[in-house]
Amino acid sequence: MNLKNHERMKYIREAILCILIGTIAGLGVYGFFLYFHIDIYGWNLGLIFAPLAAGYIETILANRIIGENIGAISAFFLFIYTTFYSFILKNPTLGFNIITIGSIAVILQAAFPTSINYIIFSLGFGIASYVSGIFKKITNHAYNLILGYYEKYVLKKPHILDLERIKEKKSYEVPLFNEKESNEKLNSLDFYFMTSTDLITMNHENIGIFNTHVIIEKYKRLNLTPQEIEDKTLYELKKGKDECLIKLSEEIKSAGGNGVMDLEIQYGLIGLGGDSFQINAIGIGVKLFS
After folding, report:
1. Is the pLDDT of residue 96 over 90?
2. What is the pLDDT of residue 212?
3. Which has the higher per-residue pLDDT, 42 or 161?
4. What's the whole-number mean pLDDT along residues 170-191?
5. Of 182, 143, 189, 149, nearest to 166 (Cα)?
6. Rounded to 5 degrees, what are φ and ψ at 58?
7. Which helix (H) or strand (E) holds 276?
8. pLDDT tens digit sequence for 37-80
9. Closest-CA residue to 17 (of 79, 80, 60)
């Protein structure tokens, strides 16, 4: 089995483990609410908290073990089980009324919070405001009113109309990454960076495996376009890569080496919801003899 297949199988096993633990935890929460009859007007609150608990525990485990969110699949399993148990197995004669509609809506919200919130608040609200145009008019009026007072009484200058402001606004200038300057900086370290796995024709001494990392927060600015954010992120990643290589060379130099072989640069997302990038530089430190 090659390395890629091995990593894929490891990912699948870890994902299944997270889903299994989340599902078991959700069933435990549901059993707790059933055993102690924690309900309102005969409607058990475990229908809400069991999927929430399953999805929450699965997400926490997945972020710690795998390093990313796998979608709270256990919450979906708990949603199916609790719905079947409560509305079909235990109470098959339950009619279609306002209580059942409300119950199903709450369960869906508990099982699929991101999707339901997106549909209700983002998609629904966006369509309504786009069709009516009322929300845009209100926000534009409030913005112009506040901005007019700010410029008149704080900045002591006449208010500029939106159209003129848009014409005068300069686009955000993302700094260009200077590849030549980057190469010159790395070459001036008096250090050898090599992706080779073995130095057959060179006399050398292996010092050990070294690993350095740099963490970069995702760039977020409301006044930037998606393209500007992408350009700025790419700039920060390239700059972070150089910082990571410099840190690696400094650690190997401090251990008596003057080069690294089998060098590998890795990029990944970390943090809650992947709000930061992590760059890793990994390699075998060596001391080359002339």
Report:
1. no
2. 94
3. 42
4. 78
5. 143
6. -60, -40
7. strand 276-288
8. 887 766 678 877 888 888 889 888 988 888 887 777 888 788 77
9. 60
The string of DSSP letters for 178-235 reads -HHHHHHHHHTT--EE---S--TTS-EEEEEEEEEEEEEEPP--TTS-HHHHHHHHHH
Structure token digits, residue 221: 């600015």
Q: How far apart are CA 229 and CA 218, in angstroms?
A: 9
Residue 179 has pLDDT above 60, yes or no: yes
Q: Judge whether 167 and 223 are in contact, CB under 8 Å.
A: no
Scanning the structure block, which residue is given the tokens 């009859």?
37
Rounded (10°) CA dihedral 111, 117, 118, 124: 130
For 179-288, CATH number out of 1.10.10.10, 3.30.530.20, 3.30.110.70, 3.30.70.20 equals 3.30.110.70
Say how many residues make up the chain: 290
Domain ranges within the chain, ordered by starting residue: 3-124, 134-168, 179-288
